[in-house]
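Quick note —
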Amino acid sequence: MTSPLGRLRPEHPPVRRVDDLVGEFGLRSDRPTQGLTFTGVTVSSADVQPGDLFVAVPGLRVHGARFVPDALARGAVAVLTDAEGAACVPADAGVPVLVADDPRALAGPIAAWALDDPASRLVTVGVTGTNGKTTTTYFVDAALRARHTTTAVLGTVELRIGDVAVESPRTTVEAPVLQSLLALALERGATALTTEVSSHALALGRVRGMRFDVVGFTNLQRDHLDFHGDMEGYFRDKSRLFDPDQARRGVVVVDDEWGRRLAQESPIPVETVSTHVGAPEAEQADWAVVEADVGLDGVGSRFVLRGPDGARHEAHSPLPGLVNVSNAALALVVAHAAGVPLDAAAEAVAQAHAIPGRMERVVERGDGWPLCLVDYAHTPDALELALEAVRPITPGRLVLVYGSDGDRDRGKRPIMGQVGARLADVLVVTDENPRSEDPASIRAAILEGVRDVRPDLADVHEATSRAQAIRDALRLAGPDDTVIVTGKGHEPTQEIAGVFHRYNDRDVFLAARAERREQHA
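Predicted structure written out below.
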């Protein structure tokens, strides 16, 4: 059975000739290809449909060519791989084996060519950065819907075209899937599409084959150093989105040194946005937040955005905190660059408060209940911004439930501990996705950082189950308190020892509230 992603394709794809493909991309073939046609492209054998070209790329552990028999069994009519992969293809495969030096780099361009370059017929926006990609993407999509009847939004939470959505497997899907989604969006009447673009996707070429109309950059903070090596490597991969082959124009938040550097070095035209009131870079930025009243309504923030012509534009972020003023300001400028009048964009963004797992209000304060929030913050900087955002709307204590991922950057764990201990009143340290690591060792590293700030571990609790941690937090919290659970956000599973268990913070919050109601009924 084809995977769900493999089925996200246009119903009427073009039929392409393999010999045209060979000529267009300068491929080498081990046998004649005249008369052979294909109708789809995939890099995953699980996504293969009859008539597909299977692109077998080198993986972290094994070469994709090892899965050629599975791809052929599902109906692949040709294989594209490198010389190493070609040597792994069974001699009796019975289909042409096309060879290129870097098949991964060609997967996107080939898929785009096969589908008649669907991105060129859409207004396309890409958003990158460490923190704020999802929120900014949803804000941009809301603004685009002010001028486009049907839009698509692709990212960490979901793959949505119009009102139809499926869970997303990763922040940015593989290149052939992305091209298929672009073509499917066109087929379903969409005229604009917004996608998150991760650093992994840029390093691995997942957005090659499309040129965005507008791209946006939020910020660069410590994350994914296990993959990129260091901040310089991380910045280099993020910067790929601003290549002339990848985008026509960009919008860059210049609140940090990396944004300012990107704006200076970008080879494409960029507009700059300063979102910190009174910051030195505000005077030089094209756009600047010059006023911000944060959390005055207990939810969002009012702000004033000064444009390049000096005009002042009233705007509103529907989510709390200065971090979401930044996300909203960037979204407004990106949407405006994509053709949406600024006033229409501001009105639409002000209403875009339902973003799964991003400052998501699960339980409202009242009737004896604390305010309960779920947020995806999983880096030290994102955690700090989240806690600072929630503090102004918390009359009582701030109760934090958090952990850190396994098999990822270990250096950030004690830093997360320090941030939580410094900015929250009550801590419940628990697990995120331990993956292959011992969960207790991850918690211990966080608690080591907590001790740097609170040697006596006052108001610090440890829970071996994330669900139990949420129940403990609700038990500890009073009606004036705020409980915020960070790290997983919208995620529908928890990975423990290589097994994915269905799990969602929001669902556990609601179940815990229901349990307490029954106990006190």
